[in-house]
Amino acid sequence: EHFLRNNIKTNNNEPALFDVVYIGQNIGHNRILGHLYQDIHDNHFKDYYEHLFWLAKLSKRKPNLSIGIAHHGNCIADPKELTLIKGTRIERLDQKVSTYHYASKATINVTFGSTMGFEFLGLGKPCLFLDPGYRNSQYLPTEMNFGDWRIASFEKFERTVESLLSTTVSPNNRIKTTDFCLDSHEVSSRI
Question: Whole-prediction pTM value?
Answer without folding.
Answer: 0.79
